[in-house]
């Protein structure tokens, strides 16, 4: 049985208003989570501790989430006893997605869809919650322009992206404030359509 310290992660640079469910969404793909302890200091940034069932899962999470961009900030993720800089073996899913950069595994991927028709009250959290019905979302962002509100969503793999286009196109998107029917298509296809119109 691995020691509790070796399977507990410190996660820093979090928004003050983050919810436990959002932390769980960030880390559950790496393994079974035993406990999440949110710490909300009076001034940002917030931080938390995430305890996994196994130290191997914790190491995979460090590799996958240290340097990951969340709410405009790069997360700081390390083993709670200060075990940064260790050489971790390649973990699950590390080859999928956008490859490596100087911050570690990229949070973006090539498996991207564009979502149109979002209500003006939509947040990136709302978008992520809706789109993860189709699979593992690794990035979500909202854009507001003259044509209204649109979103970009990256999945960790091609199958989830294709399933999102099939399952979530022309579905009802709703949050506590409003609802609308959205259109979902691949980012590349949207780019082609845009060039044809211009």
UniProtKB/TrEMBL annotation:
Keyword DNA-binding: no
GO biological process entries: mRNA processing; RNA splicing
Domain of life per record: Eukaryota
Domain RRM residues, every copy: 7-82, 111-184
Subcellular location: Nucleus speckle; Nucleus, Nucleoplasm
GO molecular function per UniProt: mRNA binding
SMART domains to which the protein is assigned, alphabetical: RRM
UniProt KW Ligase keyword: no
Classification via InterPro entries: Nucleotide-bd_a/b_plait_sf (IPR012677), RBD_domain_sf (IPR035979), RRM_dom (IPR000504), RRT5_SRSF_SR (IPR050374)
A Pfam family assignment: RRM_1
GO cellular component: cytoplasm; nuclear speck; spliceosomal complex
Keyword annotations from UniProtKB, A to Z: mRNA processing, mRNA splicing, Nucleus, Phosphoprotein, Repeat, RNA-binding, Spliceosome
Family affiliation: Belongs to the splicing factor SR family. SR subfamily.
Designated name of the protein: RRM domain-containing protein
Species this chain originates from: Zingiber officinale (Ginger)
